């Protein structure tokens, strides 16, 4: 009888937790994309860059600053304790299993993207100021997106006793939603990036759970993806 009486309370807590993480992620996406569209920092980049290259640099710079700012604001000013804990987990020690899962998922993601989505994969290793700048500027995305999509989401859903599989799938879904800007107009161009980021996000969530909550492996691997792929994926759109 006692367990039956507790069940509705647990279910309400789970529903509230899911609603919370969806709301926080939606605000994160809407605010960051809106600010990127409203502000223009293209003037900060070399005049000899093409217009699309300067626009990409502007979006990367503003997006990185806004996303980091939103994570810190929500954690310390709005008081989301799970987000504060996630920030702390950025530096927590992980284990070999978590590093292995994150590394394999990263290698598959990079290889697939280079084969299917980059018209000129050789540019990834191009020695130029353009490649260097557009690789370094958005690297902070690897931290902010992992703290939110993996750290905060998994901690909040785990505290509500949501099943592990549901935690992983919701984390993957929200990670894909963050990357809606990379979706193209055709069916293939729309679905492929979202499926790819959903799978990557789900494997990263598995890695975090396997590593006792540490975000270090997925942050390192996510930054690696950003540095290698993000400039050329953005310019290939």
Please tell me about this protein's structure:
Helix content is 77%, strand content 0%. It is mainly alpha-helical. The chain is globular and about 60 Å long. It has 9 helices and no strands. It has helices at 2-38, 51-77, 81-89, 96-116, 129-136, 140-159, 164-178, 187-210, 216-236. The model has no long low-confidence stretch (mean pLDDT 90). It has one domain (2-236). α1 runs antiparallel to α6 and α6 runs antiparallel to α7 (164-178).
Largest sheet: none
Tell me the helix content: over 70%
Order of SSEs:
HHHHHHHHH
> Can you count the beta strands?
0
By DSSP (H or I, 4+ residues per run), the number of helices equals 9
Features:
9 helices, 237 residues
